[in-house]
Write a structure and sequence with these properties.
Elements (H helix, E strand, L loop, with lengths): L2 H29 L7 H31 L5 H37 L2
Length: 113
Amino acid sequence: MSTYVRRATQVTALAVVAIMAPGGAAWAAAQTTPSAPSAKCAKANRRVGAEEKWVAKSQAALERTEKASASCTTKPVCDRFAIKIREEQERKAKREARLAKLKAAAATACATP
């Protein structure tokens, strides 16, 4: 093989590498996807989701009870509704406090790799 052919081959190879290098880096960057969340993070997020559902159910129950209490006609019935409303409010407050703790735990679990 002559010197001319070897140099032409080297120049061509370098040109191909020079053209492909920027595209190759972009391709490699595009191929890197964020890793799946850890098992602890996924579990914490599931617990947060479940607790959010319970908070929503508590809110709906409270609204139903308040709506029903608007139509009470006798004092004993109104007293029972008042007790039920107070219990629902307490239950909702506990659920919201638990949700806040779970969100903090999920943030901690998901922040650490």
